[in-house]
Amino acid sequence: MTDQPLFETVHPLVRRVLAQNPSPFTYTGTQTHIVGHGAVAVIDPGPAIAAHVEAILAATAGETIVAIVCTHTHRDHTPAAQPLAAATGAPVMGCAPIPARDGSGLEAGFDHSYAPDRVMGEGDTVSGPGWTLEAIATPGHTSNHLCFALPEAQALFTGDHVMGWSTSVVVPPDGDMGAYMASLDKLSPRDDLIYFPAHGEPVTKPKQLLRGMLGHRRQREAQIVRILGEGPRSVPEMVAQMYAGLDPRLEKAAGASVLAHLLDLDARGRVRATADIWSLAA
Question: Which of 31, 73, 249, 264 has the fewest beta carbons closer than 10 A?
């Protein structure tokens, strides 16, 4: 931590503290955002790394944390909520917990110790002097994912729904490609000027990025349909054909993404599966 700045100001109302947990899924690490001054909110407190909790406390020294807000319960986002709440007395709020059913081995997995004092849903708010956070339900990356609008800055904290460096991984059974696409569409008409993601730099052209993300997913779907038009395939066979030169560490994630597309196509009656082999629906 000694070579890292304590925090970085990314907007007059927003500071961020970078957790030291870089990986193929977290990029440079999870970014915890601090909103406001004096009485502040902490968004996505991050992983249970003692030095990161200490950095958040140091960045807010002399201030009062009035809300610890969580976008979703992957273990690189919420475990620090408990020690931060214990140190400050601040309530934990935001996304709902997810039942203990994951086991994909991808990303960080879910934090099943997460126990919010307040579960927030669409349109719910928490506020402090000069700031308001409004929950926007954006399921897909996870079933419980929320974004948080900051109307005073025409900004949106997008968690892992929209990131500043890569598209989100959608891992069934909790991740749902149909819901993810609908949640991207949901953001399109909003007037946000900037997105603050949990990974990657702020997004200063959000509408352009949304168009690109939606287009990318539709291209992947069309690619899957085209491959299955050549004959039945397993998911690993499709991954090998679709992702030439892929980093081996990301093969499982690519397989999960392909499966998520297939399940969405299946729900729409366009493909079907026999055992682990997929084909176009008759």
Answer: 249
